[in-house]
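Before the break, one more example. Copy the sequence into your notebook; we will annotate it together after we see the structure.
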Amino acid sequence: MELQTIQVVVFVAFTAIIAFATYLKCRGTRTDSDSNKEYFLAGGGLSWIFVAGSITLTNLSTDQLVGMNGNQMALLAWWEFAAVAGLIILAKVFLPVYYRNNCTTTTELLEKRYNDHHIRATVSVMFLLGNIFIFLPAMLYGGSLFMQSMFGVDIPIIILAALFAFVGACYAIFGGLRAVAVSDTYSGILLLGLGMLVVFLALQAINFDFSGIPAERLTLIGSNESPIPWHTLLTGMIFIQVFYWSTNQTITQRAMASPTLKEAQKGVFAAAGIRLLIVPPMIVLPGIVSYKLYGDIGDAAYGRIVSDVLPVWLSGAFAAAIAAAVLTSFNSILNSSTALYVMDIHEKYFNDHPDVKKLSGWVTAVFVLLALALVPLYQQAESIINLVQQLYGLLSMPILSTFLVGLLFKEVDPRAMIAAVISGTVLYGVFSFVWSPFHYIHLMFITLIFCVVLALVVNTLIFSRRAQYIGLTPQVPEPAAE
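Here is what the structure looks like once it is written out:
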């Protein structure tokens, strides 16, 4: 009991320090509660350090640490290596387009490209469905499971999830993106430092000896039966990364919140460096070590190895870092989801001049309650990360197709694109739940190609318009200087 008390005291202390440091950083900032740019893009004031920190920790949460280590094999590092390519594409290809078009949400670009707000709303609804029904409950469940296994407590997961949801919602409601990004960065420094310490101590626990671990747990060349067969790296993997890092509002919102494009690109490149050098060992080595020590224990692996190798007081600090990762990832998705609803749906269809802060508070509360209601469903999952990736395929490739067609072509009727998006979602649903002829990463690639081709065919045959390939040539001119 005394050891648990030490853990809890350290946990509370570190959590309070991060919150207080965030308050000090944000308190002197001028805010306008009715400003979309201030509330959702931090007034365009994020330096590259906070862009890098926020992007890193928004993605690096328990669904990554718990889920990837839960596979207990090196192969999952490919998600991080591929993410580096996705971040470079964001910096060099997509960010210049977003800044050129003065976008607040990624979907705003679609409205400008297709000259239609209905396609913007359609894609926003799809993003919202993914955030509310997939990412938010998965994060709450993963964080709660980690705390439960590391502290060895009998508190029901739904209670722990409710605590995470409440605190995360407070950040999102009262601080906007600025508070979220600042707390992300401070928490990220703590998490990355302690995460690498866990890697070292875990390796030390087996004397850096990997003997006795099956070869399939150590290889980076996946077999057909593995979570990532090697040939999937040649098809759908890169497009999954382009979708996630370059069009997903939760990620790109941080990069769009810098004062200049160059500042944003510096932050994205820094985040790519972190993903290449620091994150891969954190998300696979503790899991592999836990396989040698405990056997195949799945998603409980990370919490157990951390509990065993860290000193008691440091385990409390690490719990604070994990809690911060859950909170910041959770409130990041809440903030971006609220931005999508307020700007792409509410302002377009209900009230074009709402009280942004008040409306955002109510919307956030509804999203939190929905996510909490779904947490018990994720307790049945065999692997959090594999389930999340597979389910999100229902939305990711159809959404990505709208951006690719919008960027590369003009004279495409938005109704043709909406028809392709809906058809692509149905197709991937059939692939997932009825007939799966290939690995789901291949099927995501097939779904993407299907959506693009169908949009162009429908555009020609049904709407009698001939799409013109334009590459990345901007359709919207640079805004005039004031």
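The first helix runs from residue 2 to 26. Residues 215 and 266 are 39 Å apart (CA to CA). Try to locate both features in your own notes.
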